[in-house]
TrEMBL record:
Keyword Cell cycle: no
Source domain of life: Eukaryota
Native source species: Athene cunicularia
GO cellular component annotations of the record: extracellular space
Protein name per UniProt: Fibrinogen C-terminal domain-containing protein
Domain Fibrinogen C-terminal: 27-239
């Protein structure tokens, strides 16, 4: 089920062989695209191989249907997922799950992807009434492992309220500029370890928003009780210089 830490390089050659037909011939000359935004605009959504700067090739899902096209999917979750989100630091680092379903691309790959330019992010949640909502930030970056993979976000836009870069003392504080925490590496601002309750995330004290959890997908105003049906995190180069 998906790529696990230490196995992705072993599985990759076979996957690449199967996926070459999905990649346009123009990309064969220079290698794999740096992200999904380099695919031809008429390419269908699906599984592709990308290679961010300083990164090994990586199998991803490219979303060519969402507004703007060319989005690289870095997270997908469903409320009743079989995926366990209480994973170790190393498992989060290299990613887990299946890119065709629920998965986490890998915190290290998020860093490598977003350090090669200026990226934006779109967080999408679907509530239990099957209504989709989104929050977009015009800058999205994950710093390196040595600094704790902290989250950097820019200006907010969307159809709800900003719960990532605004401070909410009666909820979980703030998420922007927080380090990533897992069950075996506590880097939050809480007296306990927030990740022990649900899974790895950029916690403060603990969360306003939480998408990495089993049976609990939370975004205030859209699904206040953690009952969102699904979540999706998409990234692509930003329009901001």
């Amino acid at each position: 089920p998906g790529l696990q830490a230490g196995t992705h390089l072993v599985l990759l050659p076979a996957m690449v062989a199967m996926l070459l037909l999905c990649v346009s011939a123009a990309l064969f000359v220079t290698g794999f695209p740096a992200d999904c935004s380099h695919l031809h605009k008429n390419s269908p959504s699906g599984v592709y191989v990308i290679q961010p700067a300083a990164s090994p090739p990586r199998v991803v899902w490219c979303d060519m249907d969402t507004e703007g096209k060319g989005w690289t999917v870095v997270q997908r979750n469903s409320h009743d997922t079989e995926l366990m989100w209480k994973q170790s630091w190393t498992t989060y680092k290299y990613g887990f799950g299946n890119v065709q379903g629920d998965h986490w691309l890998g915190t290290e790959y998020l860093h490598l992807l977003t350090q090669q330019g200026t990226y934006k992010v779109r967080f999408i949640v679907r509530n239990k009434a099957n209504v989709t909502h989104y929050a977009e930030y015009d800058i999205f970056r994950v710093e390196n492992e040595a600094s704790g993979y902290p989250l950097r976000l820019g200006r907010f836009s969307g159809d709800g309220d900003d719960y990532l870069t605004s401070y909410h003392p009666k909820k979980g504080g703030i998420h922007d500029n927080m380090k990533f925490s897992t069950t075996d590496r506590d880097q939050d601002q809480y007296s306990g370890n927030c990740a022990n309750s649900y899974g790895g995330w950029w916690y403060d004290r603990c969360q306003n928003v939480l998408l990495n959890a089993k049976n609990h997908i939370l975004w205030p105003g859209f699904c206040d009780n953690g009952d969102c049906a699904s979540s999706l995190i998409l990234v692509k180069p930003t329009d901001v210089c």
